[in-house]
Amino acid sequence: MLTQQHALFPSRLFPHFHPMSLLTTYTKYFTPSNGNAAQAANMENALDTLTPLLSVETLTVLQLLGFNFKQAIGEPLTLLLQKFITSKIPADPQSNIEYNKLVVTHNIEALKVVQDKDAADRLEQLRSKGIL
């Protein structure tokens, strides 16, 4: 029989990990703040379903069965944080130049359409049909 000392997770990697503290934190900070009662009830039902499953023993058994916590949780969380951090970095000036060129080209083409009565009529027909 394997004891908690032999299990890699959570005793050696996370000695102070307690799954219920994770749920308590989640419910404290991630409850709907806009007063949507249906959404709050759905979240509470989901958490009530997950609560009995999250225990040190369950997580240990999952790891023994081959569940890769690093791949399943760590990598997506790392990517999410990477995207969040890079979204806060100012845009590359070169990409702004390219974007501005595209905007100018679009505006030139729009002016060409306005100057051509047939093209303007075709554009209006497409818009009235909901295509554009």
Can you tell me about this structure?
Helix content is 70%, strand content 0%. By secondary structure, it is an all-alpha fold.
Features:
132 residues, mainly alpha, 2 domains, 7 helices, 0% strand
Backbone shape: elongated
Largest sheet: none
Which whole number gives the mean pLDDT?
Answer: 77
SSE-based structural type:
mainly alpha
Question: How does the SSE layout of this entry go?
Answer:
Elements: H1 8-12, H2 19-29, H3 37-50, H4 56-64, H5 69-87, H6 93-115, H7 117-128
Short description:
70% of the residues lie in helices and 0% in strands. It is mainly alpha-helical and 132 residues long.
